[in-house]
Amino acid sequence: MWTSKAAIRSPFRANAAPNTDHTTNSGTKPSSGTEVITDTSFAPTLESAPLLRCVQSFFVLSLLITFASLGAWYVGFDIIQTTSQQWVVIGAATISLFYSGVIWIDWWIIVVEYWWLSIPALAGIGIVMLRMDEATRAIDEVD
Questions:
Q1: For residue range 79-95, what is the model confidence (pLDDT) as tens digits?
Q2: Closest CA to 53 of 114, 110, 116
Q3: Do the beta carbons of residue 30 and residue 41 sit within 8 Å?
Q4: Are 29 and 90 in contact (CB under 8 A)?
Q5: What Å distances lie between residue 74 and 81, 98, 103, 125, CA to CA?
Q6: What is the C-alpha separation between 68 and 74, in angstroms, rounded?
Q7: C-alpha pair distances (Å), 126 with each of 12, 26, 49, 87
Q8: Chain center to CA of 68
Q9: I want to staple 77 with a disulfide (CB 3.0 to 4.6 A). Which of 26, 54, 72, 87 is the partner?
Q10: 42-54 in b/e burial notation, b at 16+ Cβ within 10 A?
Q11: Could you give the C-alpha distances from 78 to 69, 83, 88, in angstroms and in order?
């Protein structure tokens, strides 16, 4: 039988090389799931990335923060306000993103190449929206 020897390449990478653009030593692997989540040295960084990649990463991070804020507002938290207290909270959150180093993680790579990691988050969002819809229907039936 005839078999193809063509390699499947990611459309978002110029070459088919493995992901080696991170700050860890070659061959270093996390020993637990907690280490993967808490140790940012295992995440791809923007240290030697071109300007376009930095802009893409900051855009994706701002979208993630916006969607998280809208989701919290939808659940019932009063976070979308125009008071001066709210601007203090937004400023503190922005400063904490810079201070913690989260802003220098390559969010474009994480979202585009590891999109399947968001499936549990999407399932959780679906469950929360379903429960809120059921609670709203129960209130409508009582009225």
A1: 666 566 767 777 787 78
A2: 110
A3: no
A4: no
A5: 13, 27, 25, 11
A6: 10
A7: 29, 39, 35, 30
A8: 10
A9: 72
A10: ebbbbeebeeeee
A11: 10, 11, 15
Tokens of 110: 């994480």
- 3-class state of residue 71 by DSSP: helix
Pick 139 or 127 by higher pLDDT.
127
- Residue 70: its pLDDT value, please? 74
Alpha carbon dihedral 7, 15, 112, 33, in 10-degree steps, equals 80
Cα–Cα separations (whole angstroms), residue 21 to 16, 41, 42, 91, 96: 13, 11, 10, 31, 25
CA 103-105-106 angle, to 5 degrees, is 115
**Nearest-angstrom CA–CA distance, 43 and 37:** 9
Half-sphere exposure of 102 (CA within 13 A, CB side): 13
Cβ neighbours, 10 Å, residue 25: 7
**Cβ distance 105 to 49 under 8 Å?**
no
